[in-house]
Design the sequence.
């Protein structure tokens, strides 16, 4: 089963981090063990940041559900012409892909971290 944190590695920032680390390992500037430690820290940090520091919530309505899939406790929804709203804006997006994971299904919980803002 795919780990929930793997979803964050597939984000734009996660892909950029992994590509940069791969280049550094290939050039000999970084050891593979250290690169893996950086990725593990990224996993912990992104989970912490989303849990503790993101306060904005968005809701969506309308639109067309084009496809949906449920596999290994992961929901994937593909929507078209969907209205998203938060406290500040309301916008219609032509195409949206939502990936939702049930965090209760994680086999090994991510070790909590604290940051300077949380202390």
Sequence:
């Amino acid at each position: 089963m795919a780990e929930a944190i793997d979803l964050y590695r597939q984000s734009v920032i996660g892909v950029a981090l992994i590509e940069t680390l791969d280049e550094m390992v290939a050039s000999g500037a970084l050891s593979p063990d250290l690169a893996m430690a950086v990725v593990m820290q990224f996993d912990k940090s992104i989970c912490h940041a989303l849990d503790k520091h993101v306060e904005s919530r968005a809701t969506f309505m309308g639109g067309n559900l084009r496809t949906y899939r449920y596999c290994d406790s992961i929901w994937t929804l593909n929507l078209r012409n969907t209205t998203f709203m938060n406290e500040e804006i309301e916008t219609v997006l032509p195409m949206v892909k939502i990936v939702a994971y049930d965090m209760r299904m994680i086999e090994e919980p991510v070790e909590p971290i604290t940051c300077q803002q949380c202390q």
